[in-house]
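Fill in residues.
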């Protein structure tokens, strides 16, 4: 399966607890789309959140995020990782 980095904008002021809650919501249903969310990062000052996942498609990633109430603004394939 492919790796994807998705980006969420407009989450200014997000806390560690809110990031963890959003990540856990994704993890709770990720299997429905055969997605696995590996990590999430946030910059509360800019309101940007990043999520790294492994999934069959970008659309599968988007569907999980939409269902948990935080759709991604961008999803990028990550073909090379070191």
């Amino acid at each position: 399966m492919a790796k994807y980095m998705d980006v969420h904008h407009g989450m200014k002021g997000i806390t560690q607890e809110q990031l963890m809650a959003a990540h856990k919501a994704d993890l709770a249903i990720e299997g429905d789309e055969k997605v696995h969310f590996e990590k999430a990062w946030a910059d509360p000052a800019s309101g940007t959140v990043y999520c790294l996942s492994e999934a069959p498609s970008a659309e599968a990633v988007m569907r999980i995020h939409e269902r948990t109430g935080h759709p991604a603004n961008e999803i990028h394939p990550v073909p090379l990782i070191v």
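The first strand starts at residue 2 and ends at 8.
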